[in-house]
Amino acid sequence: GESVGLHLPTLSVQEGDNSIINCAYSNSASDYFIWYKQESGKGPQFIIDIRSNMDKRQGQRVTVLLNKTVKHLSLQIAATQPGDSAVYFCGDGRGSQGNLIFGKGTKLSVKP
Amino acid sequence: GAGVSQSPSNKVTEKGKDVELRCDPISGHTALYWYRQRLGQGLEFLIYFQGNSAPDKSGLPSDRFSAERTGESVSTLTIQRTQQEDSAVYLCASSPQGRLYNEQFFGPGTRLTVL
Questions:
Q1: Is B58 helix (H, G, I), strand (E, B) or coil?
Q2: Distance from C-alpha of A105 to C-alpha of B33, rounded to nearest angstrom
Q3: A23, A53, A63, B69 — which has fewest CB within 10 A?
Q4: What is the CATH number of domain A4-111?
Q5: Please, what are the domains in chain B?
């Protein structure tokens, strides 16, 4: 099956700065995309999702951007805080199926 | 409210033994998923249940792996004749509906160590 890849395995940002985590996908049939956050020793936690009929969706301090032309997905975190330190996974799925395919994850470290 | 729970939280076993991992989804969630996460790696899809049936078993890595779900509730993932490469965190998730466009709620996982 298709896999979702990440451009960078690690990202270090200064507290208060904005963070951008990127993700690439390969299957043009994917119509649902999602971001999860996983803190050490815990299960993944939903952050935000977006369907392919949208190119931007905003949540609390987070924005997901979808560029279907280049099959690229990004997660923007505004005013990054120490509590944002975690591994972030992007995932994609097809509406006809029930499972998500996840990438390897990007580890975000926030420096005080 | 109660989230997804998994048991045991940690399991250490010897190579060749069978293990059973349990998942209790959120009450009322019809869909249930199992994933495997090796150390420092991403989430590897194993199997998906809609109700008690499994329309997608494509992620099960070998015939040593099996899973069942009863009462549209609890699910058990069984690994027979465990191998060292089975060592990983096994995560379970549930969602209100089987089709996508729904958030999956993850449990804390079971850390399996095969010696």
A1: coil
A2: 19
A3: A53
A4: 2.60.40.10
A5: 1-8+24-75+90-99 (2.60.40.10)
Hey, are the CB atoms on A46 and B33 less than 8 Å from each other?
Answer: no
d(CA A57, CA A48): 8
| B30-62 residue pLDDT tens | 999 999 998 878 888 899 898 999 877 888 999
Give yes or no for a cis peptide into B55 (omega within 30° of 0): no
Give residue B99's pLDDT: 59
Sign of CA dihedral B57, A9, A109, A84: negative
The overall longest dimension of chain A from CA atoms, in Å, is: 44
Q: Where in chain A are the domains?
A: 4-111
pLDDT, tens digit (0-9, with 9 covering 90-100), for A30-50: 889 999 999 988 899 999 999
Q: Between the CA of residue A4 and those of A25, A30, A35, what are the distances in Å?
A: 5, 10, 12
A22 close to A70: Cβ distance less than 8 angstroms: no
Which amino acid, A6?
L
- Alpha carbons A106 and B12: distance in angstroms, whole number: 28
Q: Which residues, in sequence order, are bridge partners of residue A23?
A: A6, A73
Across the interface, do A46 and B104 touch by the CB < 8 Å criterion? yes
